[in-house]
Write a structure and sequence with these properties.
The complex is a heterodimer of chains A (571) and B (172).
Chain A (H helix, E strand, L loop, with lengths): L1 H11 L3 E2 H11 L5 E3 L6 H10 L3 E3 L3 H15 L3 E5 L3 H4 L2 H9 L4 E7 L15 H5 L5 E4 L6 H13 L5 E7 H5 L1 E2 L20 H13 L3 E5 L1 H5 L3 H11 L3 E3 L14 E4 L6 H9 L2 E5 L5 H4 L10 E6 L13 E4 L2 H10 L8 H13 L13 H12 L4 E4 L3 H9 L8 E2 L10 H11 L5 E6 H7 L3 H7 L4 E6 L4 H10 L15 H7 L3 E5 L2 H11 L6 E6 L25
Parallel strand pairs in A: 2-3, 2-4, 4-5, 5-7, 6-7, 9-10, 9-12, 10-11, 12-13, 13-14, 15-16, 15-17, 17-18, 18-20, 19-20
Antiparallel strand pairs in A: 1-8
Helix pairs in contact in A: 2-3, 2-8, 4-6, 4-19, 12-15, 13-16, 17-18, 17-24
Chain B lengths: L1 E9 L4 H10 L5 E8 L5 E9 L6 H9 L4 E6 L5 E12 L5 H8 L5 E5 L3 E8 L1 H11 L4 E6 L3 E4 L16
The chains are: A alpha/beta (571), B alpha+beta (172).
Chain lengths: 571, 172
């Protein structure tokens, strides 16, 4: 008897290293791939990765890894996993972590750290990762005992993907990943302070239904919360039953079909006139999963002043933050919409309102100058849309090309639009496209990026080269930081301080040196031809589109103005 | 106005940084902060006194504080009936000849002398901030060598004013 008991104990007492526990925890979480870059403090973990043959994507810079993980998370809906070393490895992740925090992207980021006994001694490649990442993470950990590693990883994934998603950092000192331990501790999570609410308060839902019944000018504003909650189907039936017009935030594009007759476009600084007037003039505004960002609302003193404001958001801290709210509904967007769909649809009274908005849509459509000789950047996006029939994942950086992509590419499905919204990160598009393509290997992935942003993370071309990822890179090349130039033109007397960059490498030769097919196009016919021949190929392609550098993004709500004060609404 | 905010948190390293970070990013200067174990094992209670001019930003701030993973509860006690106490240690220049004078000041404040040396005495006083300010004023003429204040710690009273007397705030 005694002997038998001993063997049982022995079987349970096999010691594992921290790195082994790390791998096992990732496997338990169903992690498909890690985006990372090795270094001194993560050598034990990389050794375990080598032995476990876990899928690891080596980017060429840590920033590339974190943006790739973001792209992966946006397209797949699963947390992106990142691994980097201590010190500079960790600090190179900061931009991407802040980006994920602003746009509520689920990430679990592992950073190496110097051994526990030298923390605080300014050891080689030591940096205070906890201190640096605290304000830009949903939560962060430093593992101080091997035994707690499995629980910490489990909690991190849970925190990252539930409630309002966001990035979680786990800092692992080198001695923790190399040390062996027998883990007897249960892996139960200890998170008494974290109880994300999902179910809506029915009383407020009833109040909302009542307001819809009374409303003559209702409008729905959809944000990325709808996408995170997987609520697109519920939203569609909610809207169609009630015939309410829909407008979207930048990050909400695709949550509602862009080609739907009730969709009036993106609202905000570079939104459509119809969408902005809908927000300005409505008597009931139903915000579903948007956070009333300043680029959306314009001057708050003119924003939806005549409206009853209803706000459905999973994060209670967003409700009433920028806009006073009459009907607060703290809930998962899908749960709220499904509950609302169970209630009787109120009688429709908004026919004249829809007519009014359709009038705006017909009278003030998006427009641009189509130069006879020069290639209009808007036309580039239109051609990409036509040639892909909209069946593509589109990633961008930030700036003019991002706005044109948002305006001229119609997204009919969620998780097809991968862009840096809140933080507005240049250099996001190319690495995000890598993550997006890995998450959806069969989709066409198009990286529409500017010549400025491309030069911030172009080292990731090497990942396309290595993995032969069929990402199509469309460079909207105006030899300038277009949005900066546009603002200098509009608000700084055309004093173009450091925004015109005519000196640049030959992007075609550059791509070719990475063994990537590349083309330079200067007019519509060339672009059409190149797209037609290269889009079906399962190979990476770079197209350097030399566009008209004078083109600006219109229409526009100038800073400090209300949404009804748009300029450039007509040619 | 001056606000008293209490936060019950999980006792983990880094939690203080997370809480104070929300204040410092708004450039709100914390006037006093006292932290100690709460009634529940593994939890700590912070009592934070902070000057906030802009009431509009208070509600979102409280909610942002509340959503921190390690925050179990947040209360703004400013408009509630509360008991608030602060401990102050005051080292005053004092020759044996004037010890009697010092005693006469200390007594009505129900403070006590806890250390005596040839040149100074150390006085301990507990009370609300007004009372403590008052005794410090009284002792100033004798020469205060050193002063240490814990900052107030507070609890809501057992019986509260009726709801109608409290300034309305956001419903969630």
């Amino acid at each position: 008897m005694e002997l038998k008991a001993e063997t049982t104990v022995q079987r349970h007492s096999e010691a594992e290293t921290g790195a082994d526990l790390f791998i096992r925890a990732l496997v338990d979480e169903g992690v498909e791939m890690i985006f990372g870059y090795p270094g001194g403090a993560v050598l034990p973990i990389y050794d375990a990765i080598y032995k476990a043959s876990i899928n690891h994507v080596l980017t060429r810079h840590e920033q590339g890894a974190v943006h790739a993980a973001e792209g992966y998370a946006r397209v797949s809906g699963k947390p992106g996993v990142v691994l980097a070393t201590s010190g500079p490895g960790a600090t190179n992740l900061v931009t991407g972590i802040a980006d994920a925090m602003m746009d509520s992207i689920p990430l679990v980021v592992f950073t190496g750290q110097v051994a526990t006994h030298v923390i605080g001694t300014d050891a080689f490649q030591e940096t205070d990762v906890m201190g640096i990442t605290t304000p830009i993470t949903k939560y962060n950990y430093q593992v101080r005992r091997v035994e707690e590693l499995p629980r910490v990883v489990k909690e991190a994934f849970y925190i990252a993907r539930t409630g309002r998603p966001g990035p979680v950092v786990i800092d692992i000192p080198k001695d923790i990943s190399s040390e062996s331990a027998v883990v007897k501790e249960k892996r139960e999570m200890i998170l008494p302070g974290y109880t994300p609410v999902a179910a809506p308060n029915v009383l407020y839902l009833q109040k909302l239904t009542e307001e819809i019944r009374n409303s003559k000018k209702p409008v729905i504003l959809v944000g990325a919360g709808v996408i995170h909650a997987g609520a697109s189907q519920a939203l569609l039936s909610f809207v169609e039953k009630r015939n309410i017009p829909v407008v979207s935030t930048l990050l909400g594009l695709g949550a509602f079909p862009g080609a739907h007759p009730l969709f009036f476009g993106m609202a905000g600084m570079h939104g459509t006139y119809a969408a902005n007037m809908a927000l300005y003039d409505c008597d009931l505004l139903i915000n579903i999963g948007a956070r009333f960002d300043d680029r959306l609302t314009g001057n708050l003193s003119y924003f939806a002043k005549k409206a009853v404001i209803a706000h459905i958001d999973i994060d209670p801290a967003e409700i009433g933050k920028n806009v006073p709210t009459h009907i607060p509904i703290v809930a998962d967007a899908r749960e709220a919409l499904e509950k609302l769909n169970e209630m009787d649809p109120p009688i429709q009274q908004a026919e004249t309102w829809l007519k009014q908005l359709e009038g705006y849509r017909n009278e003030f459509p998006l427009w641009y100058r189509s130069g006879k000789n020069a290639l209009a950047p808007e036309r580039v996006v239109e051609l990409v849309y036509e040639q892909t029939r909209g069946e593509a994942v589109v990633t961008t950086d930030v700036g003019q090309h991002q706005m044109w992509a948002a305006q001229y590419f119609t997204f009919n499905q969620p998780r097809r639009w991968v862009t840096s919204g809140g933080l507005g990160t240049m250099g996001y598009g190319l690495p995000a496209a890598i993550g997006a393509q890995l998450a959806a290997p069969d989709e066409t992935v198009i990286a529409i990026i500017g010549d400025g942003g491309f030069q911030m993370t172009l080292q990731e071309l090497s990942v396309l080269q290595e993995l032969r990822l069929p990402v199509k890179i469309i460079i909207i090349n105006n030899q300038a930081l277009g949005m900066v130039r546009q603002w200098q033109e509009a608000f700084y007397g055309s004093r173009y301080a450091h925004s015109l960059i005519p000196v640049q490498p030959d992007f075609v030769k550059l791509a070719e040196s990475y063994d990537i097919q590349a083309f330079r196009v200067e007019n519509e016919a060339e672009l059409r031809h190149v797209l037609k021949t290269t889009l079906p190929n399962k190979e990476p392609v770079l197209i350097d589109c030399r566009v008209d550098g004078r083109e600006n993004v219109y229409p526009m709500v100038a800073p400090g103005k209300g949404l009804h004060e748009m300029t450039g609404v007509k040619p | 106005m001056k606000r008293i905010i209490t936060v019950v948190v999980q006792n983990r390293s880094g939690v203080l940084n997370r809480v104070t970070g929300l204040f410092s990013k708004r450039q709100w200067n914390i006037e006093s902060l006292s932290v100690g174990p709460a009634e529940k094992p593994g939890c700590s209670k912070m009592t934070i006194v902070v000057e906030i001019d802009d009431d509009i930003h208070l509600d979102p701030f409280i909610k942002q504080l509340n959503k921190q993973i390690d925050c179990l509860s947040v209360s703004d006690l400013t408009d509630q009936a509360i008991v608030a106490r602060e401990l102050v240690l005051i080292k005053v220049l004092c020759h044996p000849q004037i010890l009697g004078e010092i005693r006469a000041i200390v007594e009505p404040f129900r403070a006590s002398i806890i250390d005596v040396s040839a040149t100074s005495v150390t006085i301990e006083v507990t009370g609300d901030a007004d009372k403590n300010d008052a005794i410090i004023e009284m002792l100033k003429p004798y020469g205060i060598k050193e002063l240490a204040r814990t900052g107030i710690t507070a609890l809501p009273r057992g019986r509260q004013r009726s709801v109608t007397e409290i300034k309305p705030r956001s419903v969630i």
